[in-house]
Amino acid sequence: MFIPDIETKSVEEIKKYQEKELRKLLPYLNEHSVFYGEQFRENNINIADITTLEDLTKIPPTTKHDLQTRTHDFLCVDKRQIIDYVTTSGTLGEPVTFAMTDHDLERLAYNEYISFACAGVTSDDTFQLMVTMDKRFMAGLAYYLGLRKLGAGIIRTGPGLQELQFESIQRHQPTGLVTVPSFLPKLMSYAENHGIDYNHTSIRKAVCIGEPIRNNDFTLNTLGKKITDKWEIKLYSTYASTEMGTAFTECDAGKGGHHHPEMIIVEFLDENNQPVAEDEPGEVTITTLGVEAMPLLRFKTGDICYHHTEPCSCGRNTLRLGPVIGRKKQMLKFKGTTLFPPAIYDVLNEIEGIENYIIEVSTNQLGTDEILIKAGYDNLESLSEKRIKDHFRARLRVAPEIVFYHKSEILKQQFPSGNRKPITFIDKRK
User: Fold this and answer.
1) What does the domain layout of the chain look like in residue ranges?
2) How confident is the model over 351-372, as a mean pLDDT?
3) What was the pLDDT predicted at 366?
4) Exposed/middle/buried for 23, CB within 10 Å: 0-12, 13-18, 19+?
5) Residue 226 to residue 204: CA distance in whole angstroms
6) How does 109-147 read in b/e, with b if 16+ C-beta sit within 10 Å?
7) Percentage of the chain with pLDDT > 90?
8) What is the structure's pLDDT at 280?
9) Using CA atoms, how far apart are residues 71 and 85, in angstroms rounded to an integer?
10) Which residues have C-beta within 8 Å of that of residue 257, sequence separation ≥ 6?
11) pLDDT at position 241, please?
12) Virtual CA dihedral for 288, 294, 299, 305, nearest 10 degrees?
């Protein structure tokens, strides 16, 4: 298993390394970034005074709104140096286009190379990529570049199409999958209905993207258990975003996604933009290292996570990221209870007969949050509204309203024209 040297160094050595890289980044931003040059001047920030990671708190964080409204002011290179354009999914607002130089693409490949290596992937593996590479989607491109750099085999099937996935598995014998984990139960159901024994295929592992498969204590959540209770494969969780251009991926220990300090500085901030303690959830806030075209400084991702600093059994001394609890903008106050959508997803994934779903949130006449679950079914007779609401009350103490639709109708709503990710949360709040 390949581990970069910096990731096995002491915590003190890792910190010194990152501070050295930070001192390189700040002059670059001051000279080339319209946005950050202006920010330093308006806030009377002398970048020579920012020498330690603790000094970062002297700099105002960058928000998604900043990126959405001033995208071009973040660009640090001449347009002739841009090789590729990628776009965020726009889950929390308008999508943002990121420009990438040839150097940035090499950095992206290296990031996924060390991330796949973290998950125990070697050049002996062949991975089936069940994600899209079109529509300016960074992740699909990143996985392809990382596996290629690692020397592993790659089969690009794209998402969906269960028949094609199994035809490809049987023909090409891949050892692993890159997939959204909620697709795996659908794949298993297809196999069972068509007499395919998925436990006797070549698949041994799956790198899971976009959705959590673990609880905060690192045990498998409902979705993770639903998969592994029947399919004897190893699941690896990974967390990343277009803005970061960096992934936090689990090793075999399954105790959180490993931080790669050569790629990114990460902070966990409270409501007042101050660092939280290790046992407190905080908003993941990142500073990219080694990015040429659009580097970011103290960018608030909107994702709330716990972090862990004790050394890992794999030999890395880097901090680890727990599962995403939820997105800050998606926090719900429902009948006196604070909820994040992943907690609702977890309950829905437990209920047999619910094939897919959308959570729709609005503001009622009292000015408080209302939750409506649009649940997709294949066989409506197998579902009971009372039983589902009782299950919600047992798990979350509150029960939202539920409306049933055929699963094909929910699928249409999840994938409106041009969407590359399924929509599972719609926020109509004022």
Assistant:
1) 1-327, 331-427
2) 83
3) 64
4) middle
5) 16
6) bbbbbbbbbbbbbeeebbbbbbbbbeebbbbbbbbbbbb
7) 59
8) 92
9) 13
10) 237, 238, 239, 247, 248, 249, 250, 320, 321
11) 87
12) -60
| Residues 318, 256 contacting (CB under 8 angstroms) | no
CA distance 182 to 159: 12
* Distance in Å from the first CA to the final CA of the chain: 50
- In this structure, which long-range contacts are made by residues 54-59, counting pairs with CB atoms below 8 Å and at least 24 apart in sequence? 56/22, 56/265, 56/267, 56/287, 56/298, 57/273, 57/274, 57/275, 59/297, 59/298
410/373 Cα distance (integer angstroms): 11
270-281 mean pLDDT: 91
pLDDT for the residue 198: 94
pTM: 0.81
- 258 — phi, psi (to 5°)? -75, 135
Taking residues 147-158, what's their average pLDDT?
94
Strand 401-406 with 264-269, pairing = unpaired
d(CA 257, CA 268): 15
Pair 280, 270: CB distance under 8 Å: yes
With residues binned 3-state (H G I as helix, E B as strand, rest as coil), the percentages for the chain, rounded to 5, are 35, 25, 40
Helix/strand/coil for 95: coil
- DSSP tag of 239: E
Helices and strands in the chain, H and E counts: 11, 21
Note the pLDDT of residue 90. Answer: 56
pLDDT given for residue 420 in this prediction: 61
Instruction: Say what the pLDDT of residue 330 is.
Output: 74
What's the one-letter identity of residue 176? G
- Cβ neighbours of residue 327 under 8 Å, at least 6 residues apart? 91, 92, 302, 303, 304, 340, 341
Fold of the CATH domain 331-427: GMP Synthetase; Chain A, domain 3 (3.30.300)
Q: In this model, does residue 91 exceed pLDDT 60?
A: no
For 69-131, where are the E strands, in sequence order? 82-87, 97-101, 126-129
Site of tokens 């959705």: 211
Q: What is the largest CA-CA distance in the chain?
A: 68
Query: Does the structural domain 1-327 have CATH classification 2.70.20.10?
Result: no
